[in-house]
Automatic annotation (TrEMBL):
SUPFAM superfamilies given in the database record: Cytochrome c
Cofactor: heme c
Domain Cytochrome c as annotated: residue spans: 46-149, 192-305, 329-418
Keyword presence, Lyase: no
Alphabetized UniProt keyword annotations: Cell membrane, Heme, Iron, Membrane, Metal-binding, Repeat, Signal
Name by which UniProt lists this protein: Alcohol dehydrogenase
Subcellular localization(s) per the UniProt record: Cell membrane
Record organism: Aliidiomarina taiwanensis
InterPro entries: Cyt_c-like_dom, Cyt_c-like_dom_sf, Cytochrome_c-type_DH, Membr-bd_ADH_cyt_c
Length: 457
């Protein structure tokens, strides 16, 4: 072997060893455990109650509970570009959960994304958001998890990410590059209420985890509105498009503060409804927010300016669809399929039924710049959030049985009907989303845990 090649190989190997060594040591110096952690009275009823509320704000239960599983026992499958990862058991079980975590262990995992064994958590854990949470909030959450959550013995499920991509040590480099320590900074141009809303949105509520575009390293491109206009500008995760929350035509420009509050509290307005992961967020989290927190969030969101080059407002075209459908002159494939499959619920005028069947006319999800959510909800169906504010939670059936061409035809009809104006959906778009639906990860719920849950109930 050529000497130069040998030197190159040896050098590359040395660099790799150095990278691994540094990565394994990163959590020690970059995310150290607390030197003098406070003593937390985990049996204080008032502290536990506060912790339960903060855990609701942080939406811990939605991610750490698999459908049909025990609360906080983990097993929820989340699809990534590399494979599926599963949420972990965060019940106080000492063997499979966090029962042996000290407060310093808990704080470090929540705020810095590092386990007690100095292994970094996957970026699906929104530690970059939780980092700005106040000390008393983290302490209260610790008391709640340690004293009020039922321990569940359930092992964590390994990811399906193949080797070598499943190696954890590179995550330390991710932490070093994308999870620099930060604190919440109030914006002097905002009111006290709006700054409180910004604190919730950037912190425990971690809205950016879904609604902010991700970069090449799966990092959020912006963690606050002070950083860039990419904050809350919309993103696709697991085939769902979390829409822009900025005040632009394809975002929240047509939403009032009261409508934002109503949506977060109930998962519905007279025009639209939450679906997909947002339905879980409303059902498990935001319906429990105080009026003060909901008003603060809505007030803050309405301060976000549109991105450069995006229209400030959205105006519908003239509605020629309703009259044509009512005339019975149905000739186009998309029109025919709509009459056959959709009109019974969404009506000929596209206005649906308030708080029962979402409107299609003027619904920002329908004409969103990215049609992923519209395609997926049509293919796979969806269930409304079940809250105390409405008597029933309705389920939309999926239309997976329709061909790619039929789905493209009807969705293009909907995206351009009743004055809507959205980009064209192709059969390739449908095929891509069909693959996403086909490869959705199965959630991990051991049969023993199901039997145990049934026994306790």
């Amino acid at each position: 072997m050529n000497k130069a090649i040998k030197v190159t190989i040896v050098g590359a190997a040395a660099l790799l060893v150095a990278a691994v060594g540094i990565a394994k040591s990163v959590p020690y110096w970059f995310a150290p455990k607390m030197d003098n952690p406070p003593t937390v009275n985990i049996h204080d009823p008032e502290l536990i109650a506060k912790g339960e509320y903060y855990a609701r704000v942080a939406d811990c239960v939605a991610c750490h509970t698999a459908p049909g599983g025990k609360p906080f026992a983990g097993g929820l499958g989340m699809q990534t570009p590399l494979g599926a990862i599963y949420s972990t058991n965060i019940t106080p079980d000492p063997e499979t959960g966090i029962g042996n975590y000290s407060y310093a262990d808990f704080e470090r995992a929540v705020r810095r994304g590092v386990r007690p064994d100095n292994v970094s958590l996957y970026p699906a854990m929104p530690s970059v958001s939780y980092m700005i949470a106040k000390d008393d909030e983290i302490e209260a959450m610790y008391a709640y998890f340690m004293s009020a959550v039922e321990p569940v013995r359930q092992d964590n499920q390994a990811s399906t990410i193949p080797w070598p991509a499943n190696m954890r040590w590179p995550l330390a480099w991710w932490q070093l590059i994308f999870a620099q320590p930060r604190e919440f900074a109030e914006d002097p141009t905002l009111t006290a209420q709006q700054n409180h809303g910004a604190y919730l949105v950037e912190g425990l509520a971690h809205c950016g985890a879904c609604h902010t575009p991700r970069g090449i390293g799966f990092q959020e491109k912006s963690l606050s509105n002070r950083d860039s206009e990419q904050f809350l500008a919309g993103s696709v995760l697991e085939g769902w498009y979390a829409k822009s929350l900025r005040n632009e035509g394809v975002g929240l420009a047509i939403w009032s503060e009261d409508e934002i509050v109503e949506f977060l509290r109930t998962g519905r307005t007279h025009h639209t409804a939450a679906f997909g992961s947002m339905s879980d967020v409303v059902e498990k989290s935001t319906q429990y927010f105080t009026d003060e927190d909901l008003q603060a969030i809505a007030s803050f969101l309405k301060t976000l300016q549109p991105r450069s080059g995006y229209a400030v407002d959205w105006q519908p075209n003239d509605d020629t669809t309703t009259a044509k459908l009512r005339s019975g002159n149905i000739t186009e494939p998309g029109e025919i399929i709509y009459i056959q499959e959709c009109a019974t619920c969404h009506r000929l005028d596209g206005k649906g039924a308030p708080r029962v069947f979402p409107a299609l006319a003027g619904n920002s999800i329908v004409f969103a710049e990215d049609p992923s959510s519209l395609i997926q909800v049509t293919l796979a169906g969806a269930k409304m959030a079940d809250t105390k504010y409405d008597m029933m939670a309705f389920t939309m059936p999926g239309f997976y049985h329709l061909s790619n061409q039929d789905l493209a035809d009807v969705l293009n009809f909907i995206r351009t009907g009743w004055g809507n104006h959205g980009s064209t959906i192709s059969t390739r778009d449908i095929a891509r989303m069909r693959r996403v639906v086909d490869h959705a990860p199965e959630h991990y719920v051991p049969q023993a845990a199901i039997r145990e849950g049934a026994h306790h109930e």
